[in-house]
């Protein structure tokens, strides 16, 4: 395999790592926001929940920035095609994510219950919508996205917003939300006590059960879908465009990689093991263990989707042969090589900083800490 092909595979794997980091870290914070009104029955309890993630939520956004930056720099054709085609979805995602930091900054500035209640609903919407969109995006990849290219590589999106709300995408979106709610509940368990701890404990178990059921349903569902198979093209490590390849559509083709490489079945096993382990850990009130098992669940779920799609990254339902793959949508060899150097420095730095921040800010958040502090803080 040429150096260029190796770099392409490395960046496909790194993008997967960044998406997993985004799901675990950002999904955890958004999960807390989405379940805020359930785990917190009073203003004081909701402030406790916000203070549990208060030291971390803005730092965790680095994973979102890294993921978007990696797609932009390593796979610019994916970035351009997806962002132009999913314009309405991207605006919806953007506005909800803008409202979220406003909630942190403005919620406690006024003592009015009505004012704070509005921002509590903002936390719910800005936590639930992005995670549902995140999962639905993966679901739509298995259906194919309605776009094609002209002879001069101008992309044309021929679908609609409502067309993205197909049953499989909705199921994938709810799965993503369930995993986020589970991680959020486990996070609240890590930092809260008494009644809040018990509510989060019950919710973590319920979310885990929903996630297990949906992941189990999605497996046979994917097998029932028409999948794509790359049957002709320049091959890995060769500069190319989507106009130079041939793709066949076949029933159950999305599982062909698992048939060819049985070790890949460890990925869905890891997903189920993580969800089941998080369920049992929450039931046993071992929230820290449950959190790590929840992270394993995310790794297994996203890894399963990536392994099934490989080498496709943005399949086209309009013309399958114009699908964007790992081989025809990446940057040049020089760009990927430079980026490997930057990633080798910055990714470990982000991991170190995140670990250090959680270690320093570890422990429970008590009601006494909130009441004796600034009443206009989180």
Give the CA-CA distance, first to last residue: 53 Å
Strand order of the largest sheet: 1-2
The oligomeric state is single chain
Q: What does the overall shape look like?
A: globular
Q: From the helix content, strand content and strand pairing, which structural class follows?
A: mainly alpha
Helix tally equals 14
- Low-pLDDT stretches are none
Structurally, the number of domains stands at 1
N-to-C order of helices and strands: HHHHHHHEEHHEEHHHEEHH
Number of strands: 6
Radius of gyration: 21 Å
Considering DSSP H and I runs of 4 or more, what fraction of the residues is helical?
55-70%
The overall average pLDDT, rounded, is 91
Q: Major sheet, described briefly? A: 2 strands, antiparallel
Strand content of the residues, in percent?
5-15%
Can you summarize this structure?
It contains 14 helices and six strands. With 378 residues, it is mainly α.
Strand-helix topology:
Elements: H1 3-34, H2 36-39, H3 43-53, H4 57-74, H5 76-85, H6 87-106, H7 113-143, E1 147-149, E2 155-157, H8 167-191, H9 194-224, E3 226-232, E4 246-251, H10 256-260, H11 266-283, H12 287-309, E5 312-314, E6 324-325, H13 333-360, H14 367-371
Antiparallel strand pairs: 1-2, 3-4, 5-6
Could you explain the architecture of this structure?
There is one protein chain. With 378 residues, the protein is mainly α. The chain has one domain (3-371). The protein is 69% helix and 6% strand. The chain has 14 helices and six strands. It has helices spanning 3-34, 36-39, 43-53, 57-74, 76-85, 87-106, 113-143, 167-191, 194-224, 256-260, 266-283, 287-309, 333-360, 367-371, and strands spanning 147-149, 155-157, 226-232, 246-251, 312-314, 324-325. The strands form three sheets. Strands 1-2 form a two-stranded antiparallel ribbon. A two-stranded antiparallel sheet has the order 3-4. α1 (3-34) runs antiparallel to α4 (57-74) and α4 (57-74) packs antiparallel against α13. The longest helix has 32 residues, at 3-34. The radius of gyration is 21 Å and the shape is globular. The relative contact order is 0.16.
